[in-house]
Every structure is written in C-alpha cells, then in structure tokens.
Amino acid sequence: MIERLTHVTVLVRDSDEALKFYTEKLGFEKVEDSKMPTGDRWLTVRPKGGDVQIVLQQPGAATFGEEGAKEMLRRVGQGTTWAFKVDDCQGTCDELVKKGVKILSSPQDFGFAVEAIFADLYGNAYILMQPPAGPK
C-alpha cells in the first residue's frame, strides 16, 4: 500500500550550482548529500519544515550508462509543474526577484488560490500557491 510521497526529482546539469540556487535563493535546506554505490551523488533539499525531499539529480554515466546520462541531460529544464504553498504570494515573488529568481507569471487571484510561477536556474517552472484567506 502506498503511504505518501517522499521524494521528487529535478534533473540538473551541475549539483553544486543547483544546491546553491535551492538553498541560497529559495531558502531550502540540504537534507542529504552522499555518494551512491555507483559513485554518483545523492543530493536532496526541501523547504524548511517540509516533508517531501527534492532530489537534485545530475545524471551520471555510472548509474545510467553513457547514453542514458546524455539523454537525461537533454531533458534538464523540461520538468516540474509542482506547487509550493506560500502565505503571501506577492511578498514571496518580491523576495525571489531580489535574489535574482525569474518570475514567469505575476500573482493572479484564481478564487481557489493566488498563484504565481517562477523558474529555477535551468528553466523548470514552479507554482507559488497562496490559499484563500477564509472558507469559500
């Protein structure tokens, strides 16, 4: 029986630059950073206090084979449509812009939530979602 989602993966070109972006620009915390038996790196981050870890996966030939790693690297920047809960969508966007994060769509009120979209350093899009203030 499936209990809950624990990890999601983002393909990255460089683990160190991705770690710097997610921790310094987005304020995430590093959870795990170790070598896998293949020698490739196992690196995860998450929003502070969050449950789900994001695997920052730099495809390596040791794990995926030479051609498999090349194919995965071609897909960098083509994933995600995840949503992160925020208390203040506009305030979060303003803070991210100050840190150099690209906002793709400014906050809009959709009734069920106020949403904005930002991109990570590779172009993956993420949603910022501010729940409505009260019951509807």
Explain this structure:
By secondary structure, the chain is an alpha/beta fold. It folds into two domains: 7-74, 2,3-Dihydroxybiphenyl 1,2-Dioxygenase, domain 1 (Roll); 83-130, Signal recognition particle alu RNA binding heterodimer, srp9/1 (2-Layer Sandwich). 25% of the residues lie in helices and 34% in strands. The chain contains four helices and eight strands, in the order E-H-E-E-E-H-H-E-H-E-E-E. Strands 1-4-3-2 form a four-stranded mixed sheet, covered by helices on one side. It is elongated and about 50 Å long. The model has no long low-confidence stretch (mean pLDDT 90).
Notable traits:
136 residues, alpha/beta, 2,3-Dihydroxybiphenyl 1,2-Dioxygenase, domain 1, Signal recognition particle alu RNA binding heterodimer, srp9/1, four-stranded mixed sheet, 4 helices, 8 strands, Glyas_Bleomycin-R_OHBP_Dase
